[in-house]
Design a protein that fits this description.
By secondary structure, the protein is α+β, with helices and mostly antiparallel strands. The chain has 46 helices and 37 strands.
């Protein structure tokens, strides 16, 4: 952090213009800049912090919603028909009969979209109105997020959410460190640290100085790269480099930091998280898109039929009029005009072939199925009171066609809770006695006053060994856990509060605490542990931190007895390589590790060794030399660490459980059985993601896991050997023999996702690729693997299209084909935008239905991009839910959502559409047949009211019941047989073939009803004859209605009373309304509107007519029923033959099995720790000065110490921490008095008397790291500054107590009535920071003259060593400096008054 801009940074950002200029505290400067917008409109370059994710506003709702609705071809078709019906010359039906249903359909969909958008508006308002403290004038005042602008200075307190992308100016932590949690950004819950520049940390010490801050930040334009930032600060004629370590990203949460101050760099939609959120996409289901195609197809068929019928009218018009002179000649305007008008008349008459009622009823079906999801109590999560909710009502059928599931990890698959599950000590397993998760009636840790009661692990035997102190290995095991870590500790309300960089470390240190080995406190070079009631202080000689290459951490300490020990914990793969022997215990431990691995526990191996004094003295200069090396420092340190970490003795293994959510393995297993591919996209590191993959059974031990390097070799070899790739059929056959998984990183995807990225592609580091290309043998091996996996593109694309593809697009396609053949894919260290790009990549090349599920803001873009977005109401906020289509409480509910509700919804809507097309064709195609007998005059066959009410009432309720309540199998059977889900993925229930069968079936029914009735009654006459037009029309209509009613009874799987009720209501409404429209009263009222007088009554009262209707129904039903039974009988044996023949086909030509050369045992190491915390501790950067060390605490004068210390004798054993008070001492600056310097020297780092030997620590005369003093020439580096040498003879070693006789290490109780005065002397303190190991080129920081401390209980902040002021209240004047007593900016002042703190004498 704060490092100089390197050549690589400039090269990586060569396509990014550094034109973003931010001036602090100058809002008018940024308002003058404009950018070109739409047409002549120019928008502001620097946006405000308000966000608006809703689609509509008051002015845009109506036009935009209508624009979106008329993207549906069906709505355009209905609008055309309404316009045609309004023309009297060609109208065959009143225009109002279609206009009102169309208006109703548009209104229903508009209300649905409005309700969804109102939720977005509420979410935006809640976010924009969050409070924050903004610098106004010379004080901080409360304002809303939306009021922030670029260049504003804001103050954030503990647990606050960062409102914009901020450049960190300062914080109350030492050296202006700031700890943040980025779970909402990258899914990681371990703490990350950010640090301000030294110059801002020193100078910006009060609201007054912050208000006067006029620095300018020049950086890259807003972009979506979450982990990259390059810029510079120009201030007071100097330039300072900035990187991502100086930036607080919007959405991150402040942790373990009382207050921090930042300058707004990016606001609103310019922030990195909003750049990753993406836009709202209009989601359309496959059936919806397919219906658009069918509407176009049906419309073209209607056009063709209308044209043919019009042509028939034109040819037969004259002959027909001569024979049938009684027909009125309404179209006598010329042959061509008559042809034109008849064409449109037929088009309107046949427009009912695309029934609007189908679209209206489908909206109610979608709404009903959504309500069933909301009402499902089996998807209700009681602990958090979260029911399932369908936020979108138009995607239910899509839930039954999902092929790819993209899932987040943290908070989605896991609970993000680490629990100490088991341990192995000296080759023996100690598991929990309470396997049934029942805790003993009496708390087994009551004997330990430091126990926090949070440890669920309990083993009586192990606890007995610990308390009896009989087993040295057990003691060293727990001692290692209490010492070897980077955990920080605070004392809050007389309780120890651990602040860990990862949940793993917190779980381990907490377990040691409950077993009596309590981590109490730490300084820069010491760590205090209470071991079974005895306080012991260990001198830290070296702290060797974790990193991704080392996979281990070590601490070299000097014990109170004077011996030197090295404690190491890490991955089994690296620890076992460094053991001094491999005996029976080590072999047994390896078998135990295998057992822990099978249980998917996260393991760490613990080891230690005793280091000889001579060996340490030989190693220490090497370590110091490597620590100060300017080039290749990290590499040199790793080599020095490795030299020390040899010849270890194995202590044991810890097993931590990263708790999965309930039912995750079963859910993933069911989804895989349902032919769904599950991809895990996470921001966590690879080891953690792979461990969770095994835990949720996404990965198995017999899988071949391809990593990024392997995938690159395969993709490269594909380009060279693509001509040798087998056909897809043969390749798929061999794929069944290979269990393959893929694990890749965000860096790999950054090089791959080119065609979908809008931003410049990052410069590819070709070193690894060049090395991979040189491995010709590996290329040949993986090219054969590519052959066996069968990722052939020849069947997917024509040669011409493949030639037109760019090399990047061809590589993307090859990657997707390869990934689609894998049983599992895990993408780790991916950004939110990369998650969305992966989903888009699969949609682009696989044309598959995708579902994304997550619980945090980092998943929003992925949720929006996927065809279906599912949000979990988890611990990371509600942003995922607010942007999702469906909301759930747990991941396991996804199984029921897809396999039950999704499959049912898809099956219901498919049956509904198939049946609706059938009944429409069966009833209304008779109009076409009638045209051949009506002179092609476009005269309707049926009564007008029958046409108007047929689809709205007479046949509506049964089909509505089908769409809402139809079930082929129960929900229990759906969950037991996930294989049933495959039908939706293959579009088996509704496709062109199913549609064609429905049309053919409808044509058959219409032909039977029309021509059978016509042939029976064509030569009859008399009162029982059907030769009149009205009786014939009623018989055909009644036969059609009964035929389609019998069909729906056969299609429905279960007859219920509700279903029978819908049949009775539908048929009853037909009889009642038909009798009403054919009554004498209606005929007398409007004869032209109600021309059919008592026709139905006449038909039903005569037996011949009823026999004709019965015959029509029988001929329509019996052949179809027989055909279905015959097809059902032949279907099962043929399926069995295919299943039996399949294995033999696979085994005809076996391919060689490829397996990775791997160890016998898989490592279960997955420690979520971030590198860098060790440096913060060893440099003292993250530490507030402990009691008695001359930086951040007030130290009394020498006389006062002599008065206080004798009253608090040292009692190192059996201390009671909770009952005693720690000395509340504030450090003082050393005066010119030599006695004060001597006292502070003793308090800082006590060394033993040179006369003592044996168990006494070796004396070292090295300078005090981080707690010495600079000489008067402050320009000298710290290494050259003189530091006081310890007076070793003044503190004799007490062998009986195992510690120093007197000193500031002891736990003393200071009476509250003792007033500790301060010394007026002032001097400057040095922090002696070493550069952080972030880059090979580091920026050395200048020593800090002060430390920012948190506000005390009285509202005052302790001034640093160089700024001691007399204790007093606000408004008092220091008698020493003559300046007002000042204090640190306190966020709790809320802008009441400006307050200042000077860091130079005489300044404010």
């Amino acid at each position: 952090m704060g490092r100089a801009t390197t050549r690589e940074d400039l090269q990586d950002n060569k396509d990014t213009a550094f034109t973003w200029e931010v001036k602090a505290n100058d809002s008018t400067y940024h308002q003058q800049f404009r950018e070109k917008g739409f047409l002549c409109w120019r928008k502001r370059k620097y946006q405000t912090n308000g966000i608006h994710t809703a689609k509509y506003n008051i002015f845009s709702f109506l036009p935009r919603n209508l624009y979106e609705q008329f993207h549906r071809v069906s709505n355009l078709y209905f609008l055309l028909i309404v316009i045609l019906q309004s023309i009297p010359e060609i109208s065959t039906l009143p225009w109002i009969t279609l206009f009102i249903p169309l208006l109703l359909l548009l209104l229903i969909r508009a209300i649905r979209d409005l309700v969804d958008d109102v939720g977005r508006h509420r979410s935006d308002n809640a976010i924009n109105n969050r409070p924050c403290q903004m610098l106004i004038g010379k004080s901080f005042k409360w304002r809303k997020w939306k009021d922030l602008c670029v260049g504003d200075v804001v103050c954030l307190t503990r647990d606050s959410i960062v409102p914009a992308d901020l450049f960190l100016l300062a914080s109350t932590e030492p050296n202006s460190l700031c700890y943040v949690e980025t779970a909402d950004i990258d899914g990681e819950t371990n703490l990350k640290f950010r640090q301000a520049l030294a110059v801002t940390h020193h100078e910006l010490i009060s609201p007054k100085t912050m208000a006067a801050f006029n620095g300018t930040v020049i950086c890259e334009d807003p972009n979506s790269r979450m982990h990259q930032f390059v810029g510079s600060l120009e201030w007071n004629g100097r330039k300072y480099a900035l990187d991502i370590g100086n930036l607080l990203l919007r959405g991150s949460k402040i942790r373990n930091t009382d207050a921090c101050y930042g300058l707004v760099i990016y606001a609103g939609f310019d922030t990195k998280i909003m750049k990753n959120c993406g836009n709202i996409h209009l989601k359309r289901t496959k059936i919806d898109l397919f219906m658009n195609k069918l509407v176009v197809l049906i419309f073209l068929l209607i056009m063709v039929v209308s044209l043919v019928l019009s042509l028939g009218f034109w040819l037969q018009a004259h002959e027909f009029r001569d024979k049938h002179y009684y027909v009125p000649a309404g179209h006598a305007k010329g042959p061509f005009v008559d042809f034109f008008l008849i064409f449109w008349a037929f088009l309107i008459l046949l427009s009912v072939m695309i029934p609007m009622a189908m679209f209206i009823i489908s909206e109610f079906i979608y709404l009903g199925n959504s309500a069933f999801i909301n009402w499902d109590l089996k998807m209700y999560y009681a602990p958090h009171d979260v029911p399932a909710k369908a936020r979108s009502t138009s995607l239910n059928d899509y839930l039954g066609q999902v092929q790819y599931v993209f899932s987040d990890k943290t908070g989605t698959l896991t609970q993000n809770i680490m629990s100490f599950k088991k341990c192995c000590i000296d080759g023996r397993i100690y598991g929990p006695d309470n396997e049934d998760k029942t805790f003993p009636k009496e708390n087994p840790y009551l004997w330990n006053e430091f126990a926090d009661g949070k440890l669920s692990f309990f083993n009586k035997e192990l606890l007995s060994l610990v308390r009896t102190k009989q087993d040295k290995v057990v003691q060293e095991f727990w001692r290692l856990l209490a010492i070897c870590h980077t955990v920080m500790v605070q004392e809050v309300d007389n309780q120890l509060l651990y602040q860990a960089a990862s949940p793993d470390e917190e779980a381990l240190v907490t377990a040691a605490r409950n077993f009596g080995y309590v981590f109490l406190s730490r300084t820069q070079d010491s760590i205090t542990v209470v071991e079974l009631g005895e306080e012991r202080v260990y001198e830290v000689l070296a702290l060797m931190d974790f990193n991704s290459d080392r996979k281990r951490m070590s601490v070299l300490v000097r014990t109170p007895e004077g011996s030197i020990c090295l404690y190491t914990k890490g991955a089994d793969t690296v620890i076992f390589e460094r053991l001094y022997k491999r005996g029976v215990i080590e072999a047994n431990t390896e078998r135990i590790l295998s057992a822990f691995t099978e249980q998917t526990l996260r393991t760490l191996c613990l080891a230690y060794k005793e280091v000889e004094e001579s060996a340490y003295q030989q190693w220490q200069p090497q370590h110091e030399k490597a620590s100060t090396q300017l080039q290749d420092r990290a590499k040199a340190l790793q080599q020095v660490y490795s030299d020390m970490e040899q010849g270890l003795q194995l202590l044991g293994v810890t097993a931590i459980e990263d708790k999965l959510q309930d039912g995750v393995p079963d859910t993933i297993s069911s989804l895989k059985k349902g032919n769904m591919k599950v991809w895990v996209l996470t921001g966590d590191k690879q080891e953690t993601a792979v461990n969770i993959g095994f835990a949720c059974q996404l990965l198995t031990d017999d899988m071949l896991i391809l990593e990024a390097r392997d995938v690159n070799i395969i993709l490269d070899s594909y380009g060279e050997h693509s001509k040798l790739v087998r056909t897809p059929k043969r390749s798929l056959r061999f794929q069944l023999q290979n269990e393959v998984a893929m694990v890749i990183s965000g860096e790999f995807l950054d090089h791959l996702l080119v065609s979908l990225r809008k931003e410049p592609r990052a410069v590819i580091q070709s070193e690894a690729e060049d090395k991979a290309r040189q491995e010709l043998s590996a290329i040949r091996r993986f090219s054969m693997m590519w052959w066996s996996l069968g990722t052939s593109l020849s069947s997917r694309r024509s040669k011409r299209k493949r030639k037109n593809e760019s090399p990047e697009a061809r590589r993307e396609r090859a990657f997707v084909e390869l990934a689609s053949r894998c049983q599992a894919v895990i993408c780790c260290r991916v950004t939110p935008k990369q998650k969305a790009l992966i989903v888009a990549l699969v949609k682009k090349y696989q044309k598959a239905v995708t579902l994304a599920i997550g619980d945090g803001a980092n998943d929003v873009n992925m949720i929006k991009t996927a065809d279906i977005g599912v949000g979990l109401a988890g611990q990371e906020g509600m942003q995922a839910v607010q942007n999702s289509d469906y909301a759930l409480g747990q991941f396991c509910f996804l199984q029921r959502l897809l396999l039950v509700h999704g499959r049912w919804s898809y099956m219901r809507i498919c049956k509904f559409l198939r049946y609706f097309f059938y009944k429409t064709v069966a009833s209304l195609v008779g109009q076409i047949w009638f045209a051949f007998y009506s002179g092609f005059s476009a005269q309707p066959l049926y009564e007008g009211w029958f046409l108007a009410l047929f689809n709205l009432l007479y046949s509506t309720l049964p089909v509505l019941y089908m769409g809402l309540f139809e079930q082929d199998v129960s929900d229990t059977q759906s969950l037991r047989m996930p294989e049933l889900y495959v039908a939706g993925q293959k579009n088996e229930l509704f496709n062109y073939w199913v549609f064609s069968k429905a049309i053919i079936h409808g044509l058959f029914t219409s032909l039977v009803n029309f021509f059978l009735t016509l042939w029976i009654t064509c030569d009859t006459a008399g009162p029982n004859s059907l030769s009149d037009y009205q009786s014939f029309a009623v018989v055909v209509a009644f036969s059609s209605l009964l035929s389609i009613t019998i069909e729906v009874m056969l299609v429905i799987r279960y007859w219920t009373f509700l279903f029978l009720g819908t049949l009775l209501v539908s048929l009853g409404s037909y009889f009642v309304l038909t009798y009403a429209t054919q009554s004498l009263w209606a005929y007398q009222l409007v004869p032209k509107t109600f021309p059919f007088l008592y026709v139905l009554h006449s038909v039903l009262s005569k037996a011949p007519f009823l026999l004709v209707v019965l015959l029509n129904v029988a001929v329509n039903t019996l052949p179809i029923l027989a055909l279905r039974m015959f097809h059902h009988m032949l279907r099962k044996p043929r399926f069995k033959e295919q299943v039996e023949a399949f294995p033999s086909e696979v085994s005809e030509e076996p391919m060689p099995q490829f397996r990775r050369e791997s160890r016998v045992r898989r490592s279960s190491y997955a420690f979520s720790h971030r590198e860098g915390y060790g440096n913060l501790i060893t440099q003292g950067t993250s530490l507030r000065r402990p009691h008695g060390e001359g930086s951040d605490t007030n130290v009394p004068s020498g006389t006062e110490i002599e008065e206080v210390l004798p009253s608090t004798p040292r009692e190192p054993r059996k201390i009671s921490f909770m009952m005693s008070q720690r000395p509340q001492l504030r450090s003082r600056a050393p005066s010119q008095d030599s006695q004060m310097s001597s006292t502070l020297s003793l308090a800082s780092t006590p060394d033993p008397d040179p006369g003592h030997s044996g168990n006494q620590p070796a004396a070292t005369n090295r300078p005090l790291t981080g707690q010495g003093w600079l000489s008067e020439d402050s320009s000298l580096p710290f290494a050259e500054a003189e530091a006081p040498v310890l007076e070793r003879s003044s503190l004799p070693w007490d062998k009986s107590s195992g510690g120093w006789a007197q000193g500031l290490w002891q736990k003393a109780s200071v009476p509250n009535q003792v007033a500790i005065e301060t010394s007026p002397s002032q001097t400057q303190e040095s922090l002696s920071e070493l550069p952080m190991e972030t880059e090979s080129e580091s920026l050395e920081r200048e020593p800090s003259p002060m430390e920012w401390l948190p506000v005390s209980s009285e509202g005052q902040l302790s001034p640093p060593l160089g700024e001691q002021a007399p204790v007093g209240t606000k408004g008092q004047v220091s008698p020493n400096t003559g300046q007002p007593v000042s204090r640190r900016p306190d966020p709790r002042d809320k802008g009441a008054e400006p307050f200042t703190l000077s860091n130079k004498s005489g300044s404010t």
